[in-house]
């Protein structure tokens, strides 16, 4: 069995949950569609984005400024830089990402700063929506496809749009569901894998409302069971691979991020895992436009181990065995944050240990 990659569609987690019934959300086909609508609603003005961000989030607006991250693990906003920049410049909005479900310790200060300066605070909760965290921002957005087996799907709240883009190219989603069903049969990979690749490229071109098929599916997924399985997988890995874990706190649900010594070691481990049919993504390979040394340092060394609801502790143990056999679970106390600097010489925030 493969671990990671595109979701398959399986009946294990189908249940009449009606989890999203009555929610005051706007449902669109992707996170990119949400960000496009939010940008339109905010209007002209500069938006601050984190320098550590998914590359797909960097092309939706011209007037973007990237704020730096502090030289600490895990990554968190450089509040002093943001405060100084907002004091001296006109800002329309600031976006914060809750990396791997962890809320930035400066979020309340940023919230207060935004209120006093009449700035919109946007929260990307894609990594954290299963954590039941407190809401801080004026607007939240979430790409559901990153955590659930759906052909499309994202939501936003706190942002009203006058006309919701109607879905079209319906056959895209029929083909996507077909590929998700076929993925249960690994021997048909030569059929379903090219479909996934082609459809991802096509779907990213269109911003439209979420299909009724996806809405039907998300209200029949057992979200509680999904959350519990993800937490069990995460905690099992944390117990066994704590030496290289980015976070030392339990019960996260998005993925299990690890930090390796350098990009060569990270890439070598990733290739080793892929040879064992384990497909860990990188969150994220940063575009050059972000230009933040601290963010790029993490980007070169991070790897996310899949922990989603398709897998159990037996699958987690397989991952652990591969990592241990390669000698990668040795701890990261000697990692260099930048030339001449060791991780032991810069601050590790006690909130995350």
User: How many DSSP H or I helices?
Assistant: 10
Number of strands: 13
- CATH homologous superfamily of the domain at 223-352, by name? Aspartate Aminotransferase, domain 1
Please give the largest β-sheet. Answer: 7 strands, mixed
**CATH top level label of the domain at 223-352:** Alpha Beta
**Alpha-carbon distance between the termini?**
34 Å
- Secondary structure category: alpha/beta
Average residue-wise pLDDT: 85
Structural key phrases:
alpha/beta, 34% helix, disordered C terminus
Describe it.
There is one protein chain. This protein has 10 helices and 13 strands. It has a domain at 223-352: Alpha-Beta Complex (Aspartate Aminotransferase, domain 1), CATH 3.90.1150. The protein has helices at 31-42, 79-88, 107-117, 170-182, 189-203, 212-218, 223-241, 263-275, 293-299, 313-325; strands at 3-4, 26-28, 46-50, 64-67, 91-97, 120-124, 139-143, 154-157, 256-259, 278-279, 302-305, 336-338, 341-342. The strands form 4 sheets. A 7-stranded mixed β-sheet has the order 2-8-7-6-5-3-4, sandwiched between helices. The chain is globular, with a radius of gyration of 20 Å. With 353 residues, the protein is α/β, with parallel strands linked by helices.
């Amino acid at each position: 069995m493969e671990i990671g990659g595109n979701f398959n569609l399986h009946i294990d987690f189908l249940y009449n949950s009606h989890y999203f019934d009555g929610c005051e959300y706007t449902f669109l086909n992707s996170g990119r569609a949400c960000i496009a609508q939010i940008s339109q609603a905010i209007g002209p003005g500069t938006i601050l984005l984190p320098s550590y961000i998914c590359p797909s989030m960097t092309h939706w607006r011209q007037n973007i400024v990237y704020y730096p991250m502090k030289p600490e693990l895990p990554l968190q906003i450089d509040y002093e830089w943001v405060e100084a920049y907002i004091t001296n410049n006109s800002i329309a909005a600031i976006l914060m990402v809750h990396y791997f479900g962890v809320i930035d310790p400066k979020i309340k200060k940023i919230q207060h700063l935004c209120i006093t300066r009449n700035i919109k605070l946007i929260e990307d909760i894609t990594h954290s929506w299963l954590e039941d965290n407190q809401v801080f921002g004026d607007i939240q957005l979430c790409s559901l496809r990153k955590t659930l087996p759906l052909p499309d799907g994202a939501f936003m709240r706190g942002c009203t749009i006058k006309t919701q883009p109607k879905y079209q190219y319906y056959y895209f989603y029929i083909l996507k569901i077909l590929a998700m069903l076929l993925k249960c049969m690994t021997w048909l990979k030569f059929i379903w894998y090219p479909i996934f690749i082609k459809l991802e490229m096509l779907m990213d071109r269109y911003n439209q409302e979420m299909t009724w098929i996806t809405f039907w599916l998300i209200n029949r997924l057992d979200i509680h069971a999904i959350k519990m399985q993800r937490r069990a997988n995460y905690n099992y890995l944390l117990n066994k691979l704590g030496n290289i874990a980015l976070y030392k706190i339990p019960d996260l649900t998005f993925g299990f991020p690890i930090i390796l010594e350098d990009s060569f070691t990270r890439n070598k481990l990733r290739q080793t895992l892929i040879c064992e049919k384990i497909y860990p993504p990188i969150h994220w390979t940063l575009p050059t436009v972000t230009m933040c040394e601290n963010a790029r340092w993490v980007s070169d060394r991070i790897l996310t181990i899949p922990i989603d609801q398709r897998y159990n502790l037996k699958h987690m143990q397989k991952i652990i065995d591969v990592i241990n056999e390669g000698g990668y679970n040795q701890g990261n106390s000697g990692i260099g944050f930048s030339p001449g600097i060791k991780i032991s010489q810069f601050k590790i925030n006690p909130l995350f240990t």
